[in-house]
Give the backbone structure.
Amino acid sequence: QVRLEESGGGLVQAGASLTLSCAASGRTFTNWSMGWFRQAPGKEREFVASITWNLGTTNYAETVKGRITISRDRPTSTVYLQMNNVNPDATAVYYCATRRGGARDYHYWGRGTQVTVSS
């Protein structure tokens, strides 16, 4: 059974850096990809970034390009989301999710980790 567990969230001040982690387990993720999403209060969940397990090919939402970096560590099946110079707009619950290669939808989701940025 696939399990995704996020960590690294918390309360930070604007301008700080923060790295979220997502530990994946339950299968071999060859040919799968991992994504990060976020849901701010009162808003719909939105895509942030994704990365393929094999080649490490990345994709970012236009709104976060230049400020967020996604990476993965294949031996530990962990995906990271590094956030630099965060602002209060980054306040949200951050979720990681995974899907098979070529799939449109993400099959498995974590429970999320709260990030709160104070001004």
Q: What stands out?
A: DSSP finds no helices and eleven strands in the chain. The longest strand covers residues 92-100. The radius of gyration is 13 Å.
